[in-house]
Amino acid sequence: MRNEECIFCKIANGEIPSNTLYEDEGYRVILDLGPATRGHALILPKDHYADLFELPDQNCEQMLKIAKKMGALMKERLGCSGMNLVQNNGESAGQTVRHFHIHLIPRYDDGSRIVAWTPGEPSAEELAEIRDTICG
Ligand code: AMP
Ligand code: ZN
């Protein structure tokens, strides 16, 4: 199902041109217009799902397979030595386009860190409390 207001629906379905790296019946992989590194790409489903929580399970499996295939191709052709998969859900997580997508970010041996955070130092009690909050 498509959302008429959604730019990624239009791109995924070929209504708006893009630099397409891969396409099949359900998905399109495009180059990101504001890349973090050379070759930064986005995997888009052709159907509209706002985020991971709307994405059907079968799409999860298919999209990870596409990530693996494209990642291997980028390693071969671009010579990247690593790859970050980034996937944002919700404004607080940095999602700016509310159409589910996975970022494929090729990494090179230049020492830069794209995905980074300062590690916290929770006590054993805090970790146990969080575990129980989520799972209890
Ligand atoms: P996110 O912040 O996870 O929602 O990522 C949205 C990404 O889409 C950003 O990296 C943008 O650079 C990229 N983007 C936005 N519009 C376009 C477009 N028309 N074509 C390609 N990439 C786009
Ligand atoms: Zn959409």
Automatic annotation (TrEMBL):
Tree of life domain: Bacteria
SUPFAM superfamilies attached to this UniProt entry: HIT-like (SSF54197)
CDD domains in alphabetical order: HINT_subgroup
Every HIT domain range: 7-114
GO biological process: nucleotide metabolic process
PROSITE patterns membership: HIT_1, HIT_2
Entry protein name: HIT family protein
